[in-house]
Amino acid sequence: MFGNLFEEEEEEGFSSTSSGGRVAKGGDEPPPPRGRSTLCGIKNQGGTCYLNSLLQTLLFTPEFRGELFSLGADELGCLEDKDKPGAKVRVIPLELQRLFASLLLADQQSASTADLTDSFGWNSSEGTNQHDVQELNRILFCALEHSLVGTTGSTFIHQLYHGTIVNSIACKECGNVSQRQEDFLDLTVCVCGVSSLEEALWNMFVEEELFEGNNLYRCGQCDRLVTAAKSAKLKKLPPFMTMSLLRFSFDYAKCERYKETGRYVFPLNINLRPFCEETDGEDSDYSYELFSVIIHKGGCYGGHYHVYIRDIDQLGQWEPPEEECKIKTQKKLKDEVKQMCEPKLQEDDPLSVISAIITQEPSKSVLLDQLGQKIMDKISSSWSKRFRKHYGPIGKFLQSHNDVFMLVSNGTRVALKANPPSPVTETPGPAEQTTDSDPSTPADPGAAEESEPDQKPEPEQKGSHWFDLNDSAVTSIRESDIEKQFQGKESAYMLFYRKTQLQRPSEALKNPEYKVPLNLIKMAQEENIRVQKMREEFEASNNTVELHLHLAPSYRLDNGALQPISKEQSASTPLSFDRRKTVGDLRLAIYQMQELWEGDMALTVARSLPAGLHLYNTLIDDGVSLYSAGICTNSDLFVWNGREVCGAAVLTGAEWEPVLLNVVRPFLEDCDQEKADEMECEEGRESFENGGPGLKREARGFAGAATLGEVREALGEPQESLLCQEHKGGKRGEQGAGEGGGASGWRVFPPDDMHRTLKELSLKDGDALLVLEPQSFDSSLFTRNGDVVTVTTPSDCRWLQVEFRPNGGGGEEGDKEEERRKIKVPATGNMLLCEVKQRAIEELQIEEQTSGAQQCLRQVDCTGKLLPPVCEELSVRDAGVRLMTTLTLCPGNAPKASQLFLHFSVGTAPSAGFEKDILVEKSCTVKECLKAMLDDVGLDGTCWHLRRLDWCEEVGEPIMDEDAPLSELKINNGETLIVTEGQLPPKGFLKLSVWLYLDPRNNSSDFTGFNHTDNGHTEEQMLELLTASETHSPSPPLCTGNTAELRSAGQVEISDEATLEDLKTQVLTLPALQDVCVPITAFMRVWQLECQRLARILRGQQLTLKKLKLTSGMDLCVQPLLKEEDLGPKDVMLNVKMGVPGERCFYPTEELVWDAARDSSPRSLRTCLAAHYGFSPDSLLLAKHQPDKHTWEEMSTWNQQVSKKKKKRKAESLLGAPFHLKDGDTVGIKNLLIDNNRNFLTLEDERGQQRLREQAEQRRKGGPAADSDGVGPQKKAGPNKSRKPEVALSINVGVFR
């Protein structure tokens, strides 16, 4: 029932005038046109399906519509004057007129009721509340009568719907009859205990109720208690009879409401003569025919309304809904006849089996990925079991019989050469069918006609066409479909009958403008013109692609790729073009742009690679559209003669993709020392880190299909030269160049590799290629050991830069430039760091400034953060310090080799720059380390313990073993510890924080009772929790249903040997949960919170907490349930929500438990959802919501990894990669039978993506990013808002008396 919460703000149709200047949301996308039925639906504002159903019924009541349109502006006023003081504008009938005119005349799929509900005085939240359509029917009629007081239409509701009942009590002794008349606009008839509408009416108006025994009647004439009979009769029959069915009842034994779902029959035509007081009229005076049925689907606490309506004026285009079934039946009969006529299949011959399968296909071809399943269906055995041993894989078998089989449709389908498929009859497979169909290729009506049966169905009688109006969706139905609504959860709720005497004039048939005021017709025509213009502009912009044209005269062939001749100006020319046009149109447009172009013109798809521009396929067919040619926005096209560029032949295709290699050569020449000193910091470091010490590099591109020998020739190197690849798997001394002042290792390519291509050698962009001549080994810089060449650091690269920071900061702006001085100290890998520090102090001349203060050397990471001090007793190499890097000289003690440098904070996780530092021995125990930290901050007492940070940089697990040395606990240098107040919990006992999860979907007061005082927590600890399926946003989420309150309930201490059932029992003893009604522990669900989100459901009542892997300090969340739950180990609790057809929103979220024990494939989940909703599995499209990215990931079959050992394809599982479905995930569902939109993105998702882009842009600019979405127990929120009380449905009407 719930739809888009923000739908009411979307203004279409005639709302622009009366909305007070409200702007439509949802971008520039125009509203879609009407569907094949040519009838208009109504948008759901979130919970207004009950209103939509009633409004459609009133619209298709021609007499009601005509009376409403007969009221002019002289009686109703003008909407433009409604805000003027003293003006009496009857807003409700005026808005209803506009809505009806929009539904009749506007070329839109659906109209909005936002202006009408505004005239009711409803706020934005009223559109999301569920109400009863029977209640609305009475309130709306009452509001219209009050609005039309003093006009000629003040009595039309009374004339159309008003009837009278006479209640009589007859005395059995004196015969006196006491009568009382009762007016009605609709009749409420009983459903419980009766089987049909006639039976219910018989009980109401024919059967008599006797007053006898202890229940006597006091007769006014006899003046005593007597036996009497009570009866009721219909005195006056209205033109329109409305029957409200009492589907909802109350079970006094169970003290709960329930819905009557038993069979309840109602006729299409009914004669009310037996139920009337006067029966001497004509039959036509009592005869009624059904024209509308409002249907309720769901239970007594919520559901969805839609309506079946008979199109009396024949305004819609009715199509037989069962035509597809007839086609399938005829096809099945043809297949059976064909199979009877075919010779017996040779099941042991794979050639015969596959040929038979292809022959029986209508398209004369089969998708390759479906061939295995069709073989299984044909011979009841798989290819692997029956044929693989003798014939090999199925793909290899098809290739070896290429005289019989051929591949079509770009290799995705297989067909017989003797009977190839024709382009007309070839049917694309599911993989080929996409929502973005070629806009240049309209649907072939002829092909559609061929698929239709020759004999057209017999047309039904005029005026008997029925439609199902379900919010925005309108579909044709048969009259016999009404019988399906006699019983079940989806069943009839209100019946609307009209007298058979009421006849429509011929001019009203198929004429939606009949009796519509001229001003509304003109307004609708103007709106249609505006919308059509919007659609044309949107279609043009949607099909416009931005192309980048690269002209051949601006390029040259260099390094195996095309390079622009001029670096100053852009080599590409932008061009906006309609993708529906052909390649020939594009070629002609380029000819007109390039007037001086001579000769042939070839258009080739290009792509920019690191090596340069590379060409792929050339567009040959001028009659193909750009869409069909695969040209999309931002595509690169190279314009040339198709043969050469600047006299050089160009190799095209993927196999000739160039690879950009860094060619590295020795650089042994002596350079000027002064220049070297000036360039060492910039160029020297870049050369060292990227190309290696004493080496110079040059970026060169080579074709991927070129051999290594051809590369050597292109470099001009003799055959004796060695080509080496950087050695990435060497020992510590052979790792990255210069690490610790060591050497870099290179692997020599063997002679056999000279004949292999670059792609075969797996060389990719950015790989380094060292070129060495034999005389290079005469230098001490290069040594060869087997196939490994070692490059030693030259002397001019052996230095370390030391920066002095007197305040020890991380580069704050407050440091003065004169205080931050730098000096370059000559160093080697074997030099001790204490010597480096001493030389730096001397050369910086800061002995006096640092007298009496200890100084230490610290490295800096890429973000500018200071790393732990280095041990000055070690050498540069042993300390892991790279030459040609920077060390910072800061105040502080340098650690010894036996010491650890630790950060610590008291109480909470430290912020950057606020933690304290301490040096401790590696051999000291946790207790000694804690004492040293307490002494450092001046704290006393023994009620303290240490905790480590978890991977979220939050306070994690306590360090339990206080007598263990730090080295045994693997506490590393630079780690952060948290000094936490309180005694260590006993070993084997867990201290768990408990939070109460309150789902607003559960309106039961049993779950909302909460003790706010007993547990001592303030209202600040009442949070709003977002489940793993949704994220926090400033505006309310679209119909998520997953936003819930999370309130602190306290903490429990329990043994890790206790069971989950024991934990639930102990949780229920918390004072804060005394008012929560949970009959037994099975009515409670326990979640584990991780990183402030619901992570997993704890299952297994008798499993111990140790087996459930619970640790002390964890946060748990308990959720009361409405029914018992016992999830199995492979049961997954999912939040599923069905997409609203034609809308960018979803119905309310429902919980679904999916058993993935036997089968966790997408097919299994689709089958489970199909059984839940009553749909066909093949019609459902599923997607998983990624709340962090605000995207949806479609669930379909995907390519699984094939094991190299077993050569067996792994089974598809949604529990593994790439979906990793877990408890609490949100799965969206689209029913493709009624919803052609395969896009799951909602407006809220788009706003979330926009926020992410803005945050990323702020981070890129260095500004403060927006707050993260995470909320949870560690983050306090403001006071919790009080729950709004429920209000009855009402419509505000002005005073017009």
UniProtKB/TrEMBL annotation:
Basic and acidic residues: compositionally biased ranges: 453-465, 1250-1260
A UniProt-annotated Pfam family: UCH
Matching InterPro entries: Papain-like_cys_pep_sf, Peptidase_C19, Peptidase_C19_UCH, UBL_USP40, USP, USP_CS
Residue ranges, annotated region (Disordered): 1-39, 415-468, 727-746, 1250-1297
Biased composition (Gly residues): 735-744
UniProt xrefs under SUPFAM superfamilies: Cysteine proteinases
Stretches with biased composition (Acidic residues): 1-13
The USP domain, residue ranges: 40-500
Protein name per Swiss-Prot or TrEMBL: USP domain-containing protein
Organism whose genome encodes this protein: Pagothenia borchgrevinki (Bald rockcod)
Organism lineage: Eukaryota, Metazoa, Chordata, Craniata, Vertebrata
